[in-house]
Design brief:
The protein is an alpha/beta fold. Helices cover 34% and strands 22% of the residues. Helix 6 (123-132) links the parallel strand 4 and strand 5 (133-143). The longest helix is centred in the middle third of the chain and has 12 residues, at 62-73. The structure holds S-adenosylmethionine.
Length: 201
């Protein structure tokens, strides 16, 4: 009971033992993490394309998560694990510098002014992801919302250990990037802002 109370009042993750990629997959293949997998087509597509790499995905909406599970279940290989839970918790308890790539595709835009504080890609969260990236690893982020892209650029400024992989902080096209449902829905209308931030070695 004491233990439960400890974890039920916010924070307190520091007492959890750290998780290693091999705890999920039983091997040490390159480790990729997608946050907010939606219907799972991105993670399933990448997992199929790269059978020698592992893919861990998080989704908080059960109905959508179930679709992703169905899709991933059709793959022949077993390099995907999907978790119906807030990614923040699991990412926090991952050991440091164990992730090769993070993907955050079209995070909820929260367009209303009073909701903007709910946006995921705040400096603190990006800093958390950075601490889990291997040196040389990448954080991919994509949004169709110009003002969210602007906010991400601002939020990246205090983070000296990340540098863009492009000539500019973000680009409007990324060759070979698998289109997601939200990409198809909004790319034509709003354009897309892609970030690939690399952790300095
Ligand atoms: C706008 S949708 C985009 C889905 C998909 N990435 C795509 O591009 O089609 C954002 C998704 O992120 C999920 N999400 C938001 N915050 C999350 C979190 N902290 N952990 C896991 N999933 C999250 C939402 O439930 C939603 O399905």
């Amino acid at each position: 009971m004491e233990r439960f109370q400890k974890y039920s009042h916010g924070g307190g993750f520091e007492d959890y033992e750290r998780l290693k990629p091999s705890d999920f997959f039983g091997n040490d293949a390159p480790f990729n993490v997608e946050i907010g997998i939606g219907n799972g087509e991105f993670i399933a597509g990448y997992a199929e394309k790269n059978p020698d790499q592992n893919y861990l995905g998080f989704e908080v909406m059960k109905r959508i998560f179930n679709r992703a599970v169905k899709r991933a279940g059709k793959l022949e290989q077993s390099n995907v694990r999907l978790i119906h839970f807030d990614a923040t918790f699991f990412v926090t308890i991952l050991e440091d510098e164990c992730v090769d790539n993070f993907y955050v595709n079209f995070p909820d835009p929260w367009p209303k002014k009073r909701h903007k504080k709910r946006r995921l890609l705040k400096t603190e969260f990006i800093e958390l992801l950075t601490s889990k990236l291997k040196p040389g690893g990448s954080l991919y982020m994509a949004t169709d919302q110009a003002d969210y892209a602007q906010e991400i650029m601002e939020n990246l400024k205090p983070l000296d250990s990340l540098e863009t992989a492009f000539d500019t902080v973000c680009v409007n096209e990324l060759v070979d990037y698998l289109p997601t449902k939200y990409y198809r829905k909004f790319a034509d209308e709003n354009g897309v802002f892609f970030f690939r931030m690399v952790k300095k070695g």
